[in-house]
Write a structure and sequence with these properties.
The chain is an alpha+beta fold and about 240 residues long. It is about 30% helix and about 20% strand. It has a five-stranded mixed beta sheet with strand order 7-9-8-10-11. Strands 1-2-3-4 form a four-stranded antiparallel beta sheet, covered by helices on one side. Strand 5 and strand 6 form a beta hairpin.
Length: about 240
């Protein structure tokens, strides 16, 4: 999205968007599309303020007028409550966002089956991430789950380390040894799916590690304790049954 910003006029005086007859959402969508070739407009809706339309593209929220002559990137603040309606909307979008597990390259995961393995959890993780190491300790307390560990080497030195873990004769042991015991992996380099995993993470807007994705597609960014993981797993299982 950043590469598009130079093309747009940043509107500071939103009062200019008043006193017109408003178009329908489909015509506004068609007016926006030429400015974002190849990008998907994830949502578009008319707001209750100033006749603006809210658009979501590539995870970024912005506003426009009915003819898409101006784009406004920034927060709209309700002066009565002194709250950012933009931030509230972003939180709604984040909570509602889903990533189906079967859309992920699980065939390239380090697959760990615990107990009956009935419940499912995918984790984008970086071996050099301290919070990822904390998460692994929490996962020791979870059973009856299949964990798909998706190597996501975004930190310095993590690509080489992830390569050695993937190329190890026993990937699960190499992963546990390093994450839980600090034992560095030893292996010859081999061909890895790391570029595919990085691409998947980027496409699914994984901006940090660890990122947990549950069977119902719900997403949690960051380390959470075992009790919360257990609650999420139960909720996801119930959602699948229903």
């Amino acid at each position: 999205m950043a590469m598009y910003l130079k093309r747009f006029v940043f509107v500071l005086l939103l009062s200019t968007f008043s006193g017109t007859t408003w178009a329908d959402e489909e015509s506004v969508k068609k007016a926006i599309e030429p400015y974002f070739p190849g990008a998907k407009i994830e949502s578009l809706r008319k707001t209750p303020y100033l006749g603006l339309y809210e658009a979501l593209i590539g995870g970024e929220l912005f506003y426009t007028d009915e003819k898409a002559e101006y784009f406004f990137f920034g927060h709209i603040v309700d002066t009565k409550t002194r709250t950012s309606v933009t931030n509230e909307r972003l939180q709604e979008i984040k909570a509602a966002r889903r990533v189906p597990l079967d859309s992920l390259p699980l065939e390239f995961a380090i697959k760990i089956v615990k107990g009956n393995g009935e419940r499912k959890l995918a984790v984008f993780t970086d071996p050099n991430c301290p919070y990822c190491k904390q998460l692994e300790k929490e996962l020791l307390n979870i059973t009856d789950v299949t964990i798909y560990t998706l190597l996501y080497p975004v930190l310095r030195g993590s690509m080489e380390l992830s390569t050695l873990i993937w190329c190890s004769q026993d990937q699960i042991k190499a992963w546990d040894d390093f994450m839980l015991r600090g034992v560095a992996p030893e292996a010859d380099e081999c061909e890895t799916p790391l570029p595919t995993l990085l691409k998947s993470g980027q496409e699914n807007r994984v901006t940090g590690t660890p990122t947990l994705i549950f069977a119902d597609g719900s997403i949690v960014g960051g380390m959470i304790p075992a009790a919360q993981i257990e609650e999420r797993l139960k909720s996801a299982s119930n959602a699948e049954k229903n």
